Amino acid sequence: MAKSMESSRKESILIKYAIFSRLLVLFLTVLWRSFLQPYDTSAALNPPCLHHREDSPPPLLVANTVSKTLENSVVWDSVYFLRITECGYEYEQTYAFLPLLPFFISLLSRTVFAPLVPLIGFRAVMVLSGYVVSNLAFVFAAIYLFRVSVMILKDTEASFKASVIFCFNPASIFYSSIYSESLYALFSIGGVYHLLSGTSNVAVIWFALSGCARSNGILNAGYICFQTMHRAYEALYLKRRVCLCVQVLVTGFLRCVCICLPFVAFQAYGYYNLCHRHKLDELRPWCKAKVPLLYNFIQSHYWGVGFLRYFQFKQLPNFLLASPILSLAVCSIVSYMKTRPELFMSLGFQATEKEKRSSARLYSLKDALEPNVITSSNEGKSDIRQRKLSRKKDVTVSTNAAEKSNSAEASGYFSADVFPFVVHLGLMAATAFFIMHVQVATRFLSASPPLYWFASHLIASPKHSKWGYLIWSYCAAYILLGTLLFSNFYPFT
Questions:
Q1: Residues in CB range of 185: below 8 A, 6 or more apart
Q2: Which of 84-88, 122-126, 265-269, 376-380 shows the lowest mean pLDDT across its residues?
Q3: Do residues 7 and 84 lie in contact, with contact meaning Cβ atoms separated by under 8 Å?
Q4: Measured at the alpha carbon of residue 89, what is the angle toward residues 69 and 283, in degrees to the nearest 5?
Q5: Which residues, 6+ apart, have CB-to-CB distance to 491 below 8 Å?
Q6: What is the C-alpha separation between 181 and 184, in angstroms, rounded?
Q7: What is the pLDDT of the chain when averaged over all its residues?
């Protein structure tokens, strides 16, 4: 009861931090924008849609200043998101931007903020809606991160510190702009929360929505794969129930399909619009491929994304710009590997019994079984005997590993529950470094919980007290640099 009250109190304080951080970023954006002339002012131009849409009435003279201020704040990818919201997917390259953010902007613009259209115009209302969506989503993402952290770390103070660092993370400018980072973070972290809470079907919906915000949302299916793998092992080898194992595998497979389905459906939508009913000589190259992947073609053709394609000497400044976040990611992964090598070597199968039965539900079948399929007491006794025999066989191999796990278990970041998150972070970091435009790594990795858990661990450790100053300095510097450069249409991650 006391822990629950303390957690609620910390959560209410965290909400204040999250709101303050968004107001701070918006204030700095307006400040830098008023001092400097933007590098590119063409974003305010808004040519008519290719397909005729009803023109909104011009804004009133009184609100004209507000309208121009909002429209002039649109920079970089925000231009694409607003164009898609207003005109739909007109050009091939616009299909690189997934539809969830435009959907929410359109929804707010035509409902909550519709009365403002006669005052400031429809485009300005869309901009306002975009800011509201991104900033609200960020606040809820911070709340979910705290709740997930409490479940995983089992340390309210460490969870609170990690969540506060997230509130002031280096990619903060993108979470307060008309970008999809906030929605991706909300549905990814929220999906993890529901998965850990035992409502796996709800988690699947949230993960699927994260894949509608950003393409890397489909990697969240990895959490389902990890959970399915361990549950199938328990059902087959510990409980000796083949039917239950098949049930777990089929359920896990269907859940992964559901997570990937929205992204695949969007690719099919693009194929239908751009390739269907066109003559063979008019088709784009990707339309003729055996597996026509629109998203991969766009990233490669228009943005030069590909394996090692960014490894050029002229891109050295961008590698330096991404080096802090990549270094933190590598340090967090290596530190975990050194402390829990047995988990990496066994894909988590050498976690202790206590860890497997933890409240996180990543390893155990306890919330997967319905009352009518729970084993009888005789079967339970048989399972216990089988486990005792297997423990005796493996005692010489796993004693040292178990002792090491128990010692590490006291430290929240090194618990077995963190393992799948570290693997997920490793895949994301490798993708950012070897395939993507490397400077994007700052925002690409910014929604990964292990970064903040590891940072919180370093700050709390007396041996690494200097790391606290370094981490906070890094966050502050990138918030200042990001609001200065990004808001004025200069390159920043």
A1: 137, 138, 141, 145, 175, 446, 447
A2: 376-380
A3: no
A4: 145
A5: 439, 485
A6: 5
A7: 86
The residue to which tokens 């339970």 are assigned: 380
- pLDDT of 277 reads 76
Rounded to 5 degrees, φ, ψ at 365 are -90, 0
Among residues of the chain, what percentage have pLDDT more than 70? 86
For 139-157, the pLDDT digits (tens) are 999 999 999 999 999 999 9
Q: pLDDT value at position 352?
A: 79
**Tens digit of each residue's pLDDT (9 = 90 or more) over 368-399:** 554 444 334 444 444 444 444 444 444 343 44
Residue with tokens 């953010």: 101
The predicted model scores a pTM of 0.89
DSSP string spanning 198-266?
A: T-HHHHHHHHHHHHHH-GGGGGGHHHHHHHHHHHHHIIIIIS--HHHHHHHHHHHHHHHHHHHHHHHHH
Instruction: Report how far apart, in Å, the C-alpha atoms of 69 and of each of 44, 76, 113, 125, 415 are.
Output: 10, 16, 17, 12, 49
Q: Which residue has the tokens 């090692």?
A: 308
Strand ranges, E, within 245-379: none
The rounded distance, in Å, linking the Cα atoms of 445 and 457 is: 18
Question: Hey, how many other C-beta atoms are within 10 angstroms of the C-beta on 16?
Answer: 10
Instruction: Give the dihedral of Cα atoms 444, 445, 449, 450; nearest 10 deg.
Output: 160
**Low-confidence winner among 53-62, 129-138, 459-468 (lowest mean pLDDT):** 53-62
Rounded to an integer, what is the distance from CA 339 to the centroid of its chain?
26
Q: Which residues of 29-66 are buried (b: 16+ CB within 10 A; e: fewer)?
A: beebbeeeebeeeebbeeeeeeeeeeeeeebeeeeeeb
Q: What stretch of H or E contains 173? A: helix 172-175
Contacts of 126 (CB under 8 A, 6+ apart): 82, 85, 86, 105, 106, 109
User: Cα(141)–Cα(139) distance, rounded to whole angstroms?
Assistant: 5
Q: Which value, to the nearest 10 degrees, does the dihedral of the CA atoms of residues 129, 132, 133, 136 take?
A: -170
pLDDT of residue 367: 58
Per DSSP, 54 falls in state P
